[in-house]
Each structure stands twice: as structure tokens, then as C-alpha cells.
Amino acid sequence: MRTSENSHKLLEEVYKSLFLIRHVEEKICDLYPTDKIKSPVHLSIGQEAVSVGVCKALTREDGVMGSCRGHAMYLAKGGNLKQMFAELYGKRTGCGKGRAGSMHLADVQAGVIATSAIMASTVPLAVGWAYAQAYQNTGNIGVCFVGDGALDEGCVHESFLFAKQKKVPILIVCENNEYAIHSHFLTRHPSKDYILNWASSYEMKCKRFEDDDPLALYDYVGGVADELRSGSGPQFIECYTSRWKEHVGPGDDFKLGYRGTEEVEKWKRKDQLIRIGKLLKPTVKQKIEQNVLKEIQEAVEFAECSPFPKPTELYENVYGGENE
Ligand SMILES: Cc1ncc(C[n+]2csc(CCOP(=O)(O)OP(=O)(O)O)c2C)c(N)n1
Ligand SMILES: [Mg+2]
User: Read out DSSP for 189-228?
Assistant: First the structure.
């Protein structure tokens, strides 16, 4: 039950997470021209609220998987920040030992099981992971974040059917930012309701969120998590949101002409970071911000001071070997 005390705690946690993701990504934008970051970056700026609202409703042991636009999910689920920056720098101390880069972040301790540059590939993986949790009776649930473009892959349909038939404890979260690279949702689908209609056709409980409110998502996903743990089978939510930066990289791409600035300005006017910040006492808000900025600075310094992997390490952590 929400008391006044735990409501404040939740607001502080939600704000901290939103602020962390926004400022980590702004730091990435500042650093990118120096070429210290060795991997392409698909930024989540503008989309933070979906990851935060969903992940705050999960336990640390619940597992999440996502796509190459995975920074927000990784951080909202509690992924290690120092190891994230080290990974972007290609350093040996990174969460993927410097081999994975921004598109393949993972932190299994924090329940960030996998992200992948291959669109939709984590949907069957997440269904399998969640099925294993049910099979082993761990009580953990899985969540898979997937873009509106990636949903069109055939393996998503196969995964939904399997999940439904086996009552897999998984929530599929479609982050609908309305674009797959530069093509609008309605050029790829017959209608706005298409996604919800076909997800519903698998007889899963489905719901759409249009306004990016992390608190509404937190409340709803808390209920979903209880239902999944009780064995009621998979569920689906579609969350409208907006990517403020270019598809890949730290800049914007309005000059390409595939969307106008007004589309994004509309979302910026209801920026959840600002909205949630206004619900906090100014002194509390300031303290959170100071701590997060310090944490980011320390993570960047950690990445800068860490060594690159040695060329011989290339042969470690791979399947097979000359004696096998
Ligand atoms: C299997 C596969 N096909 C194509 C691509 C190229 N690709 C990278 S991102 C992307 C669009 C993804 O759109 P969406 O799923 O909506 O995610 P968003 O980028 O909007 O977060 C495509 C087609 C890929 N990475 N993997
Ligand atoms: Mg998209």
C-alpha cells in the first residue's frame, strides 16, 4: 500500500533514475566528439520514463532484456555505472570486458540479462529466460523491451505464441517512439491500433500508455508483476514515447526532413524529468542531483583510468578452443 512516506521515497527514486539517465546520456553527447567512446550510441534521451516506471516496479532478481537503445533500461534496473562507461570506452573493466559496447550492455547481478543490436533477438531469449524462472520456481519474472519497428520481426510472433501457451511469466514492453530509424509507424502499419490489436490476438492482457508518466507505469506494472508471479501468463504494454536525438549518435537529425521539430517539442513540454522534479522539495532535489553528477564524474574517471584489453584476451571467453 502507498503511504505518504513510501510515496516520497518512490518519487525520490524515480527522479534519481530519470536524472541519472538524462545526465549520463548528456555526458555521452559531450564526450562523443573526443572519440574516447569506441562504440555507436543509440540514445534514450526523451524515453527515460518508460524504463524507469517499469523497472522500479521489479525486484533486483527479475530479469530485463532490450535492444541496442538500452542505456535507460540498464540504468533504471540498477546496472553498474562505472562498468557501463568503461564498456563504452572499450576498456577491460567494462561490463562486457570492453568487447560489447553500448549496444550489448548487461549486468546479470542487477538483472540486466542482455541487450542486442539484432532487432527483436532478445524477445525469444527473454521468453526463454522467463520460462526457465517458472520451470525452476524462482518466483522471478522477465521483462522484454522492444521497439515498434522490432515488433514486426517474425520471432516476436513465435515468442508470443510460445509464451501464451506455456504461461510464461513475462511482460513485453513496446517502446513506441513511432519511428524505426527514419520511417514513421503509420508507413509500416495500417493503423495506430495495429500493435495492440495483434498483441491482443494472442489473448494476452494488453494496455496502452500514451503520456509517458513513470508513476502510472510503476503502479500498473506493480500489479502486472503480481499477476505474472501468480502464474497468469504473459502480458503486453505499449508505451508511447519520443526519441529526442538522432537514431544513432549524439546529435539531432531534423535536417533529414523525416520529422519536424514540433513533434519532439510537444514531448519536451511535458518532460517527465521536470514534472517529477517539481513534486520534490527543492533541497531534496538538489541533493539527488549533486550525488548523481558526482557518481557520473567518478564513472567517467574510472573509464579513463582503466586499461584496454590486451590483444591476447581476444581468445578468452569464446566458445571452443584448440583442445576441444
Ligand atoms: C534484425 C535487424 N534488422 C535490421 C536492423 C537495422 N536496424 C537497427 S535499428 C532499426 C530500427 C529499430 O526500430 P525500433 O525497433 O522502433 O527501435 P528504436 O530505434 O526506435 O528504438 C533497424 C531496422 C537490425 N539492427 N537488426
Ligand atoms: Mg521505434
Answer: SS-TTHHHHHHHTTT-EEEEE-S--HHHHHHHHHHHHHHH
